Amino acid sequence: MTYVVIENCIKCKYTDCVEVCPVDCFYEGKDILVIHPDECIDCGVCEPECPAKAIKPDTEPGLGQWMELNTKYVKIWPNITVKKQPPADAKEWDGVPNKLEKFSPAPGTGD
Ligand code: SF4
Ligand code: F3S
């Protein structure tokens, strides 16, 4: 089992989640963070910390494409362990539907 970052993280990227993860298993893309499924210890502490409600346990139904996206990009993107400033327009993107269309596969800057 693992936890999974889902669509509403896209362009919100509040990064509160990385502060609480005891095993530092978040990885950063330009538009979204992802969780390494082999490193996550299923502690669940990140789920309530996300203001965008964008983290779910993989036991929830219908998360297949998000599981694939997380698994794919942890191999490519840099690790992120410290909270950073969210995008200036994060609140405007919170809850917008179909954000996957806006997703960029570019890695995060890590700044
Ligand atoms: Fe990290 Fe725990 Fe969240 Fe897994 S469930 S990503 S170990 S905080
Ligand atoms: Fe994304 Fe929520 Fe973390 S918006 S960066 S999963 S706190």
Short description:
This protein is of the alpha+beta class.
Any key phrases for this structure?
about 110 residues; alpha+beta; Alpha-Beta Plaits; two-stranded antiparallel ribbon; 4 helices; about 10% strand; binds FE3-S4 cluster
Please specify the SSE layout and strand pairing.
Blueprint: E1 3-5, H1 16-20, E2 26-28, E3 33-35, H2 46-49, E4 55-57, H3 64-73, H4 90-93
Antiparallel strand pairs: 1-4, 2-3
Task: Write a structural description.
The protein is of the alpha+beta class and 111 residues long. The protein has a single domain (3-83), classed as Alpha-Beta Plaits (2-Layer Sandwich). The chain contains 4 helices and 4 strands. A two-stranded antiparallel ribbon has the order 1-4. It has a two-stranded antiparallel sheet with strand order 2-3. The longest helix has 10 residues, at 64-73. The site of iron/sulfur cluster (SF4) has 13 residues, from loops.
Note poorly predicted spans.
none
| Percent range of helical residues | 10-25%
Strand content: 5-15%
Broad CATH class: Alpha Beta
Query: In total, how many domains does the architecture comprise?
Result: 1
Taking strands numbered 1, 2, ... along the chain, how are they ordered across the largest sheet? 1-4
* Rg, Cα atoms, Å: 12 Å
Bound molecules: iron/sulfur cluster, FE3-S4 cluster
Mean pLDDT: 96
What is the annotated CATH architecture? Answer: 2-Layer Sandwich
Main sheet, how many strands, which sense, barrel?
Answer: 2 strands, antiparallel
Question: Overall 3D geometry?
Answer: globular
Q: Tell me how many strands there are.
A: 4
Number of helices: 4
